[in-house]
User: Which sequence fits this backbone?
């Protein structure tokens, strides 16, 4: 009985398979005819499916294109920014060589420099705008009291601590730091005191020849710029005027630092 039952079951299975095969073959063979009659009823669903599929495909392509284009533009922007900084340094170097040429000619000294490029690692969280840790150290040739500048030979800080792979640079504009500057127009010496955040204050005798917008150079190296005079507190009843200088260092935008060796 079991044997007959299995044969009957297998025969029924083959019969189902045969019917399924015949139906599939008929649909494939007569599909052109079926399609002309069925399509008017399924057109809406077909169009909706196509539009949905196209929307997802276009959206994915647009998102992918946005991020790939954005990354490409960011990389190009970074490359262009570094190129601009390099050109600014070249122009500033030419001005510096003009100022140094007379001294070199008189002394007969030949001085060749190489430029070391550094990047900021972090700022001193306890003294905002006071110190910055740079990515080069003793093994790279960094020495204490080295002068660090940014684009356009704009002096920023002096190396105060040197480690094997990093160094600590104290900003000239750090609170209570003092540095000597000189005006570009009249060579007047300014004893600048750091006010934090890239700003300085200096006291000069009344009636000094000094103007807003005048460039201030680092007195110890007059090829380097410290900042620009943004305001002068003139009071003829006092014997001194206060001069406010805005430094060139911006911790939010300055990402590349240089030092001559």
Assistant:
């Amino acid at each position: 009985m079991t044997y007959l039952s299995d044969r009957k079951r297998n025969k029924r299975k083959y019969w189902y398979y045969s019917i399924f095969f015949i139906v599939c073959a008929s649909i494939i063979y007569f599909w052109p005819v079926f399609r002309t009659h069925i399509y008017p009823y399924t057109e809406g669903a077909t169009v909706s499916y196509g539009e949905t599929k196209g929307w997802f495909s276009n959206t994915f392509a647009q998102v992918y294109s946005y991020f790939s284009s954005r990354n490409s533009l960011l990389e190009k922007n970074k490359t262009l920014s570094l190129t601009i900084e390099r050109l600014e340094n070249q122009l500033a170097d030419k001005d510096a060589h003009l100022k140094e040429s007379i001294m070199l000619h008189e002394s007969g000294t030949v001085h060749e420099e190489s430029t070391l490029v550094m990047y900021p690692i972090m700022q001193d969280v306890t003294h905002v705008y006071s110190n910055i840790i740079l990515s080069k150290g003793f093994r790279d040739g960094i020495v204490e009291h080295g002068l660090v500048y940014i684009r356009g030979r704009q002096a920023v800080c002096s190396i105060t601590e040197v480690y094997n792979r990093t160094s600590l640079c104290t900003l000239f504009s750090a609170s209570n730091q003092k540095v000597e500057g000189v005006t570009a127009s009249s060579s007047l010496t300014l004893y600048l005191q750091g006010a934090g955040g890239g700003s300085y204050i200096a006291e000069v005798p009344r009636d000094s020849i000094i103007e807003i917008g005048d460039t201030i150079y680092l007195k110890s190296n007059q090829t380097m710029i410290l900042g620009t005079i943004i305001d002068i507190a003139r009071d003829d009843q006092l014997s001194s005027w206060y001069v406010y200088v805005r430094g060139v260092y911006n911790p939010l935008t300055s990402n590349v630092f240089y030092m001559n060796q």
Observations:
- Residues 3-61 form one domain.
- The chain has three domains: 3-61, 69-112, 114-261.
- The helical segments are 2-107.
